[in-house]
Amino acid sequence: MDVLTAINKRREITRFKNTPIPQDLLEKLTQALYLSPTGNNLPSREFVLLTNKDTLTQLSTATPYVKWLEQATAAVVIIGNPDVSKYWLQDASIAGGYLWLASVSSDLGAAWGAIYHSEDHEESIKREDYVRHLLEIPEHLRVVAIIGLGYPDIDPAPKEMYLVDSVLHLEKYIANTTN
Ligand SMILES: Cc1cc2nc3c(=O)[nH]c(=O)nc-3n(C[C@H](O)[C@H](O)[C@H](O)COP(=O)(O)O)c2cc1C
Questions:
Q1: If you take atom 6 of ligand 1, which residue's CA is the nearest one?
Q2: Both ends of the chain: CA-CA distance in Å?
Q3: In the chain, what are the domain boundaries?
Q4: Pocket test for ligand 1, best of 10, 12, 69 (most atoms within 8 A of CB)
């Protein structure tokens, strides 16, 4: 599947079949993470690949919004390292996007679980620490997100989008007076 087809097909999938993801496919997905670009080409993000069902279940309570991890057959925890680069958050986010599209192009579904919270430091540390302790992630690393993976058990309808003109400006910024 070419990348534009994957972009058009991509939805968040939060219901998964029990079918395990083959090892060679998991390796392709990890390659997508590994090859994702970073600012100054610095490796400011790291990944923990998980397939252990008990761990996935435990992670499903990391925030109230990742319950679907109970059903996922794999997940990737994306970690940022602020000591390596000031772009750690962008680098981690791009890696997540690469993983999501690589999953779609392989007929897998993916869901994004936000762990890092930019507006509520206390909440962020609470969520991050929960994941940190479970996976033995060192203190100086930030836990950005958990991407749940699996074969989709749902086929969502194409999503209703807002007008492209409300977010896309040509040649210069034109304020939208209708919103
Ligand atoms: C930065 C970011 C954080 C997100 N956090 C969560 C989350 O914690 N839990 C969840 O179920 N979905 C989460 N999502 C998924 C979005 O809610 C979802 O992508 C959005 O509603 C659009 O739906 P679509 O992916 O089907 O287009 C997140 C997505 C992004 C990009």
A1: 113
A2: 36
A3: 3-166
A4: 12
Considering only CA atoms, which of 164, 160, 166 is closest in space to residue 179? 166
What number of other Cβ atoms are within 10 A of residue 87's Cβ? 19
Query: 20-24, 112-116, 165-169, 173-177: which range is least confident on average?
Result: 173-177
Is the entire prediction scored with pTM above 0.85? yes
Answer yes or no: is pLDDT of 14 > 70: yes
Residue 69 to residue 148: CA distance in whole angstroms = 6
- Residues of the chain with pLDDT > 90, as a percent, come to 95
Give the position of tokens 């998964």: 16
Q: What pLDDT sits at residue 159?
A: 85
Q: How far is the CA of 32 from the centre of ligand 1 (A)?
A: 20
Tell me the average pLDDT across 35-61: 98
Does 24 have pLDDT greater than 90? yes
Class of domain 3-166: alpha beta
**What is the Å distance from ligand 1's center to 117 Cα?**
14
Distance between Cα 12 and ligand 1 center (Å): 7
Residue 111 CB less than 6 A away from ligand 1: yes
Contact of 101 with 31, CB cutoff 8 Å: no
| 159 close to ligand 1 (CB < 6 Angstrom) | yes
